[in-house]
Task: structure prediction
Amino acid sequence: MIETERELLETIKAAAKEAGELLKEGYRSDGLANFESKGASDFVTIYDKDAENAIIRCVNDSFPGIGFIGEEGGVTTGTDNDYTVIIDPLDGTNNFLHGVPHFSVSIAVTRHDELLLGSVYHPLLDEMLWAGKGVGAYLNDTPLNMPSARPFHEMLVSTCLPYHEKGNCEISLNQLSVMMPQVAGIRSPGSAALEIAYTSLGRYDAFWSEGARLDYWDIAAAIVIAREAGCTVTDLTGDPAPAHWSSLLVAHPQRHDELLQCLHSDK
Result:
């Protein structure tokens, strides 16, 4: 990894920590955070906006020409055409609003169209999962090593479920009905970035999504982490680099194809 990219990696980690401090402050304040609705059950708080602005300021201090794609701010074109920072300042806003302690800051960097760097930070646990292409994945300062694959019937898998207008409930229900009898448990905690990154730790054995709508900023950083930890990451057609991520499967290499076949058996 070249020096610029190492500096970028340290910068996004610092930016995630700075944004995380703002989120901790909001989470621990009295009462629920003020919010506005972007759509049916799709909320944004002042903390989403403040956290994204803090990330942009932090990155701009070291890389003033870089471009951004932010969940709240949209696309900001920079003068540096090589790198783009992709930001989800608060992944798990519904959890945050309801006092559920499961949310994260997610920041990725692409080089042209290639996913290069990623950091996913759980501020309440002070857990920083991060990775750079070719340099491995880490939890804080500890390198991640892919755990052994569990038997299919012992696997704990995670997913995202659609709600209101965000996705296709029928697809999710069909896939759940196929998966539920075959694995040890299914979880949908509400922060896709964390769930994907947790697969790198072995806290989950796999993550999949198709019925729920996931935006690129929800998954970009965690995909880098999962791949560097040794997971196989594709969409549900098996494509590792689709033009658009309309579905996702993250799993141990020894279980990926088996899961793919299982999820296709509902068709």
In short: DSSP finds seven helices and 15 strands in the chain. Residues 73 and 176 are 34 Å apart (CA to CA). Residues 3-143 form a domain with the Fructose-1,6-Bisphosphatase; Chain A, domain 1 fold (CATH 3.30.540.10).
